Amino acid sequence: MQINPTQLKQLIEASLFVLGKPLSAKMLKDTVLVDFTVSRDKIKAALDELQQDYQDRGVQLVKVAGGYRFQTLEVLSPFLQPLWQEKAPKYSRATLETLAVIAYRQPVTRGDIEQVRGVAISSHIIKSLSDRHWIKVVGHKEVPGRPALYATTLEFLAYFGLDTLADLPPLSDTESLQAVFSSVKLTPEQSEEQNTNE
C-alpha cells in the first residue's frame, strides 16, 4: 500500500505522541508502517522534516536512546513544574556515584563499583537503580561466586537525554558531569545519609 509524504509525517507524528517513548525508524517501519511501501530513508527524511517543523515550538522532536521522542524545551521546565503534583525523586550522592561508575565502566560487578568508590554499596542502591530501569544485569562474571554484571539501559539513556553511551561527558569534565545529573536533585539530608547507607 502506498502512503504520501504528508500522511507519512502525520502517522509518524501521531505514533510518537501516542507511545511517549523513543521510537527508531526501524521500529516505525516494523509496526505502524508495516502495511505501507516506504523505505527507511523516507522514514528518516520524514523524521528530519518533523524535527525542523518543531524546531521553534515548546515541544521538540529529539533523538535519544537510539530513537526519536517529543519532549518539552528545557527552558520551559520551571514553568511547567506546577502541572506535576508528584515531585521528582531525589537521589543520594552514593546512588549517583554508583550510577556513574556503572555508566562509565560497564559491565561491572558490585565489587568493581565498591573498589572504585572505596566503600561498600547497600543493596538498596542497586535495587533503586534497577527499579527505575536505569540498570540491569547483563550477565555474570566467570569468577568464584559468579557475581552479576551491571550495565545501563535504554531507559537510562532516554531519561538523561542521551542517544548513545558515547554522548556521556568526558570523566575529566566536572561541568559536563554536573550537567548530566542536573535533573536529579540531591537533598542535604540524603547527602549526609550516604555515610550511613553506604
TrEMBL record:
Domain of life: Bacteria
Key words, A-Z: Cell cycle, Cell division, Chromosome partition, Cytoplasm
Any one Gene Ontology BP term: chromosome separation
A Pfam cross-reference name: SMC_ScpB
Keyword Nucleotidyltransferase: no
Protein name: SMC-Scp complex subunit ScpB
Organism: Shewanella septentrionalis
Lineage, top ranks: Bacteria, Pseudomonadati, Pseudomonadota, Gammaproteobacteria, Alteromonadales
Protein encoded by which gene: scpB
